[in-house]
Amino acid sequence: MKILKTLLFIVPSVIIVVALYAGFSTQSVTYTCENQLSLPLSSKVFVTVEKYHPWVSFLSTSQGKITYDVPIKGSESYNYLSKKQGELQLYNNDKTKILGHYSQLNKKLSLNTKEGSFQGKCQLFKQQCSNGLMY
Predict the structure, then answer these.
(1) For the chain, which residues make up each domain, given as ranges?
(2) How far apart are the C-alpha atoms of 102 and 70, rounded to whole Å?
(3) The pTM is what?
(4) 101 with 88: CB under 8 angstroms?
(5) Coil, strand or helix: which one is 3?
(6) Where are the beta strands (DSSP E) in the chain?
(7) CA–CA distance, 6 with 14 (Å, rounded to integer)
(8) What is the pLDDT of residues 30-39, one digit of tens each?
(9) How many degrees, rounded to 5, is the angle at CA 131 between CA 78 and CA 6?
(10) What is the mean pLDDT of each run of 10 residues along the chain (135 residues)?
């Protein structure tokens, strides 16, 4: 009888933990993007798009995060991301100003950074899930 009670407690607990672990993970895709502007930012940047699952919206107002990495110069993150009509819009931390956008349809990125502006086309570099279960 004790074994049955223990199993009735352990099995649902394990299922809940696995569901939360898989459900609240982020799906991230890294792109390499070529700059089409003749501005001093860089000719190439690496951009990682982390999209949250839809049910995370109950806990956060952001739908994801974008981090760009400029070789040698450093990186920066946009922590507030919203999706509108197939396009990801990046906002500053107080959500008052759009600092860039990324089109998921034609893979074009436009950023306004502290180092300068960037506009270019992106290609897939790698795709992963933070918990390793999805891909």
Answers:
(1) 26-129
(2) 17
(3) 0.69
(4) yes
(5) helix
(6) 26-35, 44-52, 64-70, 74-78, 80-84, 87-91, 98-103, 108-112, 117-129
(7) 12
(8) 899 888 775 5
(9) 135
(10) 82 72 70 76 80 72 83 82 86 83 89 82 79 49
